[in-house]
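Reproducibility note. Readers wishing to regenerate the assembly model reported in the main text can use the exact inputs given here. Chain order matters: entities are listed in the order in which they were concatenated for prediction.
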Amino acid sequence: MDLTEFLVKTATIFVVFVLTLVIAMYSTWAERKVAGFIQDRMGPNRAGWGGLLQPLADAGKMFFKEDFIPALANKWLFIAGPSLAMLTALLASAVIPFGSTFRINGHEIVLQGVESNIGILYVFGVVALGVYGIMVGGWASNNKFSLLGAIRAASQNISYEVAMGLSLIAILMMSSSLSLGEIVAQQHGMNWNIFYQPLGFLIFITCSFAECNRVPFDLPECETELVGGYHTEYGSMKLGFYLFAEYINMFISSAIISVLYFGGYNYPGMDWVYSQLTGALGSETGHNIATLIGTAVFFGKALFFIFFYMWVRWTIPRFRYDQLMNLGWKKLIPLAIFNIIITGAAVLFLKPVITAWLN
Amino acid sequence: MQLTNRSKQVSNKEMTLMERAYIPAIATGLAITIKHFFAKKVTIEYPEVKRYLGPVFRGRHILKRDEDGRERCTACGLCAVACPAEAIQMVAAEREKGEENLYREEKYAAVYEVNMLRCIFCGLCEEACPKQAVYLRHDEFVPVFTERDQVIWGKDLLVEDMTNRYTREAWTKEEARALDAKRASGESTNVVPRAIP
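Running the prediction on these inputs yields the following structure tokens for the assembly.
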């Protein structure tokens, strides 16, 4: 790997990192705005135009609060908890393909932090690690409510990861690749996976709600039962990191959903747009502009799913814990297995028939 | 007896498959919330937009002058007696020769102070006043104070300004708006108070 390539990768990673942080920051603002609008209110609108400086004000408040560590808490792990949560949340964005390629002086630059051939596996590994942040923090607090919240989060994440992985297998059977770049490239144009995997998508999105600890599966921080859940003892920016990690996770899972099921940067008519742009502006500028449009489409999809997360949050009440476990183990996992069988049968028998009929 | 037509009979029947699928119910709920998302917001953004509170709202005090610009207060002290919060204090003085254009009666209030922290804006002073001198304005609040010496309002703040007289002629929202417009254009909004009995 030569130096330019290394620098280009570093710059890409940095841009992805900053973008993730900014989107997560403004998700907190958007969450409150959406909550307000859905409840017939205005939401925050005092700090800056339309409340746009609200995240900065919140962060400033968080930083200047007392950084409190309970006397009987395990100090190292108490600090490690939010750090781990933040770290694992940020790691996952490295493999997401944000667009196709940039062409500069004949060099192709992939708009993706790391083009890994096991991208989706990497995402799953990192997301699975995320539960450590919560578990470690909850345990280190030396507080029964925190521990209960953390255990809830851990068992919930582990239960729903099974169904999530199974729903994903159907996608992988169709794409026969674990690389996210490859999976997106296969959904060229309007050939999105959602049309082949509606049931898989439903399972996947339900599980990602549970993975992000979002309503209706936000039992780890169920105030009525657990005070504040796993972050009861946290304050100041350590609490901020936990909340922030949740929003980063939300963005990551929205991006993953749009990559896996909604074609990432692909949109209908992209070939026509591409040929028009390259015809008018040359193969370099035209290509770059086409890529930018694709990236904008990708972010549009991802932001829509962030909105969808919030929309659901302010619509549905919280599940009870036994209902949560019943749904995960008794409904979603059998459904996901059923989906795998259907997909396998379709790939094996239906696909040759249809291709033969089309030819 | 039926009290409402929105009540539903509770039943513990088995849910149908459609109900157990949960997805249609979620879709219905999402449809309701998105309708609210785009609905007109009911919020009145207070410091920028002020709602008309009606002609009987009791805001800050004012010491009225009569149509010739003479103070109507005669420092009888009935308002201070009526005040349940003991917020009003006054010092009476005798009118000198040549002050007839300043004070209406032979006795006047040299000092008239209202403690705005004590005042509960009940309006009993207004009711007690035999000279129709003290009123609680329906269109202005006591502004927020940040210093101790802003709490006790003396005559400099209380006595009516003859160029911008207080009237309670606006009884509806529309009349209030029209009056505001008149005031803004510098027009005198004088109204003759009732004759003193």
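We highlight two features of this model. Chain A has a mean pLDDT of 85. The first strand of chain A starts at residue 97 and ends at 104.
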